[in-house]
């Protein structure tokens, strides 16, 4: 069907939280990010468009590997120049909520990327719906999530 932007995403998060709360698994947080933001971030950092997906797969390793290992793989295996990798590193270590989204919307590099702005506006809207659904305290906007 046809739905407003981010409504189904927020509803899915609400259902997952209801299930996890029922299972009583203890403390947890659901991480969210936006593919358009990742594309815009890579573009802003100087990654060639044909290397977005391979860079994304490397960033995705941050939950298992330290930044230095991920950076080395980007440079040595994926062919990303060191300056671009360092700029990516500045972003992918960030996480937070609406305050972070607002800060990134004002970021000099990201604000020039249409894809990044679209992704950030999408995340901002998602977080607003999560607040309305009463689940925002269990949602974390995380730029390392690829």
From TrEMBL:
<dbReference type="InterPro" id="IPR041715">
    <property type="entry name" value="HisRS-like_core"/>
</dbReference>
<dbReference type="GO" id="GO:0005829">
    <property type="term" value="C:cytosol"/>
</dbReference>
<keyword id="KW-0030">Aminoacyl-tRNA synthetase</keyword>
<dbReference type="GO" id="GO:0005739">
    <property type="term" value="C:mitochondrion"/>
</dbReference>
<keyword id="KW-0436">Ligase</keyword>
<protein>
    <submittedName>
        <fullName>His-tRNA synthetase</fullName>
    </submittedName>
</protein>
<dbReference type="InterPro" id="IPR045864">
    <property type="entry name" value="aa-tRNA-synth_II/BPL/LPL"/>
</dbReference>
<dbReference type="GO" id="GO:0003723">
    <property type="term" value="F:RNA binding"/>
</dbReference>
<dbReference type="GO" id="GO:0006427">
    <property type="term" value="P:histidyl-tRNA aminoacylation"/>
</dbReference>
<dbReference type="GO" id="GO:0004821">
    <property type="term" value="F:histidine-tRNA ligase activity"/>
</dbReference>
<dbReference type="Pfam" id="PF13393">
    <property type="entry name" value="tRNA-synt_His"/>
</dbReference>
<feature type="domain" description="Class II Histidinyl-tRNA synthetase (HisRS)-like catalytic core">
    <location>
        <begin position="9"/>
        <end position="144"/>
    </location>
</feature>
<dbReference type="GO" id="GO:0032543">
    <property type="term" value="P:mitochondrial translation"/>
</dbReference>
């Amino acid at each position: 069907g046809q739905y407003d932007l981010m409504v189904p995403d927020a509803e899915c998060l609400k259902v997952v939280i209801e299930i996890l709360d029922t299972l009583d698994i203890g403390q947890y947080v659901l991480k969210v990010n936006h593919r358009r933001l990742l594309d815009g971030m890579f573009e802003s950092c100087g990654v060639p468009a044909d290397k977005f997906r391979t860079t994304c797969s490397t960033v995705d390793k941050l939950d298992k590997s330290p930044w230095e290992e991920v950076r080395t793989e980007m440079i040595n295996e994926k062919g990303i120049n060191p300056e671009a990798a360092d700029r990516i590193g500045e972003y992918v270590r960030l996480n937070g909520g609406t305050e972070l989204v607002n800060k990134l919307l004002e970021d000099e590099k990201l604000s020039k990327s249409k894809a990044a702005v679209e992704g950030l506006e999408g995340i901002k809207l998602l977080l607003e719906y999560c607040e309305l659904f009463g689940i925002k305290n269990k949602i974390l906007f995380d730029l390392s999530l690829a």
